[in-house]
Amino acid sequence: MHGRISNHSESQLIIESPSFIHQGWIPKKHTGFDLDISPEFVLHNLSKQVVSIAIIMDDLDIPFISEYCHWVIWNIPRLEQIPENIPYGPQVASLQNAIQGLAYGVHRYRGPKQPIFVRNTHRYQFSFFALDIFLELDHSAKKSDVIQAMQGHILQTGSITGIYKR
Dihedrals φ, ψ of 157, to 5°? Predict the structure, then answer.
């Protein structure tokens, strides 16, 4: 099992991925240069009070802006394992109708795919939010809408970061 091991406090959500280690290389199949499918994640130390999970994936190394959102999904039911290859579309029936909002202009996971002129390594952070409610947001919501709706409902957070270079 790959992943991230950090703070071991009772409330810390630990995120691992069988696909890549924390701060390790994201496999090509999870990028726009290949299958462009979402990685699998395993959540450790998930509180029993958690009702739903939200995930936000950001590229932390886009010039002139602090980050660029590649994926936003919420209302994932309380699961300790998020499957690989979450289907495209605004609603994900296989995850009890979890909702994928607009990120990168689409309702789906969009993996790393730097343009030809970008030659440096980029960091991609997957941030997890364990919530005490299901969010009442339409699939047209973006990252900022999700962050605002989560306020006051976040029980735990955790993240894992992978890197990729064209």
Answer: -135, 155
pLDDT (tens, 9 = 90+) of the chain, 166 residues, equals 444 434 444 578 999 999 999 999 999 999 999 999 999 999 999 999 999 999 999 999 987 777 899 999 999 999 999 999 999 999 999 999 999 999 988 999 999 998 888 889 999 999 999 999 999 999 999 999 999 999 999 999 999 999 999 8
Indicate whether 65 belongs to any domain. Answer: yes
93: left (phi over 0), alpha (psi -120 to 50) or beta: alpha
Does any domain span residue 147? yes
Instruction: Look up the pTM and report it.
Output: 0.92
